[in-house]
Amino acid sequence: MEALLTWLETQLADNSIFTLDTLSYYGQGLTTTVQLVFLSLIIGLIVAVPLSIGRGSKRRWIKMPIFFFTYVFRGTPLLVQLYLIYYGVVFVEGIQDTWLWVLLEKPFFPALVAFTLNTAAYTTEIFHGAIKATGRGEIEAARAYGMRYSLMMRRIVLPSAFRRALPAYGNEVIFMLHASAIASVVTIMDLTGAARFVYARFYAPFDAFLFVAGIYLCLTFAILFLFRYLEKRLLAHLKPASG
Amino acid sequence: MIDLQGYGPRLLEGALVTIELAVLSLILAVILGLITASAKMSRHWLPHRLGTLYTTIIRGVPDLVLMMLLFFGGQIGINMFTDWLYDQFGIDIFINVNEFVAGVLTIGLIFGAYMGETFRGAFLAVDSGQIEAGRAYGMNHALVFRRIRFPQMMRHALPGLSNNWMVLLKTTALVSVIGLSDMVRVAAEASKATREPFTFMIIVAIIYLLIASVSEWFFSRLQKRYDVGFGGHD
Fold first, then answer.
1. What percent of chain B has pLDDT over 90?
2. Residue ranges of the domains in chain B?
3. Does residue A11 form part of some domain?
């Protein structure tokens, strides 16, 4: 340990880029990225549950608008959606007089709105697919017990659908982490924003971007392991019985 | 009628840049994907490890970060190399990294990793009896690949390939950040100049949806062709 520390000290002695000052930028960037990703995922998840049920509805006027929403948000780049909301919000009539303006003035909230809508669209389609894959027998059994539609959804369909959606949702979480790098384009100081700042200040692209790539890689692996653990716990009943 | 305030032709040029960029990156990604897939299926440990390292790192880092690393770092790296050439051998050359080439290389490199995973799964799905039968007819490896493995692999790879293409198309929007005048950049400039972001961004969104719809139709045609002899898919 002693030897390691002295070795580290000599290694870092002539290091002018990764000082405490720049590391604190990366630290703040990490906080912003995690906040942005976590908040948009949570809100997107809450929005996606009713939408995914509505997406499978038999009524056209419920089904079609939701389909249109997911089609547009999954078919266009997130950057375009972000620009549309970031540049466009100023031009909404009268918005500058409402309390919302206090939030929307900073780039964080337009970005949050864009990310939330985007992840809600993808999550809706993931859940819709999982709900559609519910076994016919399960639904018939619930009906035979005399359950109403809402009770059947709550007790039978949704719990098993969420479990089935878990692997695909894990991919969506990683996708969202990577997509959040786009926030740096609208002047948000997230992880990528911090890397761009360090690059611009020291003109050291390798140091700045490789370091941030390493952080993203660690975050990706952390999410990967979390979901693998969740799958092991929640999908245990689907594994073939070990002999 | 929508008033584009003179930005119409530039927007069209930007759309062409987007399409060219996407198609060229796709070609590069498919080539890299085939190489990666064969590396990962190799019996030797070195290509196997290298293939795994490549796909793991690329898929764990955001596209934008990789793009900036290769675009900003690429120029410095090339300058270092040409300086070294000059010092060692007195060869004096100057290579300037063009944004378009940097964009194609980066997107191709990123999606090569995704294509590699798609192709690997598809190659493994081809029945080994088919390959043995080909060998039994006296075909050499190249002929077995061309006549038996590749056409049958494509049937399994097409859904993943089409999916990757859709993601790739949307990723091209990121090149606007490193300074390439694709349609997103033109629209962003026009939005700022005319103060009408809705008009331009919605037009760009519609063009993306159009390209996606056309390619969806194209891929379904292709799928039908490769499904010959396997009955209806839908």
1. 43
2. 18-181
3. no
Look at residue A7 and tell me if it is in a domain.
no
What's the whole-number mean pLDDT along residues A30-54?
95
Mutation target for A interface from B72, B117, B184: give the one with most A CBs within 10 A: B72
What is the Cα–Cα distance from B56 to A224, expressed in whole angstroms? 12
- B69–A210 C-beta distance less than 8 A: yes
* For range B73-82, the mean pLDDT: 82
Of B190, B183, B202, B206, nearest to B4 by C-alpha is B190
Contacts of B113 in chain A (CB under 8 A): none
Predicted confidence band of residue B1 (pLDDT cuts 50, 70, 90): low
Position A14 in a domain: no
Q: A195 CB near a chain B CB, below 8 Å?
A: yes
Is the pTM of the predicted complex or chain greater than 0.90?
Answer: no
Predicted complex ipTM:
0.86
CATH code of B18-181, in short, is: 1.10.3720.10
CATH number at residue A208: 1.10.3720.10
Q: Could you say which residues from 151 to 210 on chain B have a Cβ atom under 8 Å away from some Cβ of chain A?
A: 166, 170-174, 176-177, 184, 187-188, 191-192, 195-198, 201-202, 204-205, 208-209
**Looking at the 3D structure of chain A, how many domains does it have?**
1
Chain B's closest residue to A180, CA to CA, is B62
Dist CA A195 CA A206 (whole Å): 10
Chain A residues within 8 A of B80 when measuring between CB atoms:
none
The residue ranking higher by pLDDT, A193 or B86, is A193
DSSP label of A154: I
Instruction: Answer yes or no: do A84 and B202 touch at CB < 8 A.
Output: yes
Which span out of A71-85, A86-100, A191-205 was modeled with the highest average pLDDT? Answer: A71-85
Phi, psi (deg, nearest 5) at residue B3 = -95, 115
**Domain span holding position A60:** 19-235
Chain B contact present for A77, CB below 8 A: yes
> Which of A51-58's residues contact partners 24+ apart within 8 Å by CB, and which partners?
A51/A120, A51/A124, A52/A123, A52/A124, A52/A125, A52/A126, A52/A127, A52/A128, A52/A131, A53/A131, A53/A153, A55/A124, A55/A125, A55/A128, A56/A128, A56/A131, A56/A132
The more confident residue out of B229 and A85 is: A85
For residue B234, name the pLDDT band (cuts at 50, 70, 90): very low
Cβ-nearest to A72 among B60, B66, B205: B205
In a domain, A4, yes or no: no
